[in-house]
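Example 3.2
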Amino acid sequence: MSGKQKVLRKCVGCGEMKEKVSLVRVVKTPEDDFILDKTNRANGRGAYICKDALCFQKALKNKGLERSLKCKIPDEIIEQLEKEISNAE
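Structure, written as tokens:
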């Protein structure tokens, strides 16, 4: 057989299915904090997004991030996530 299968996840910004390792996971923790999960193992509700600032802007515009995390995201958290994603590029 061919070995391990590639794990795919859907980006909430562009809507494309991509390999999990090429995406960033945004997590809403049980304590209602928002973090970028670089290990893909943090507890909480997660949403995947491309490592691209334009894709992050699309996710905010179409409210894909809010729908996936099932909550309104505060403005200061959006600014913090935007900085972290631009650093991840």
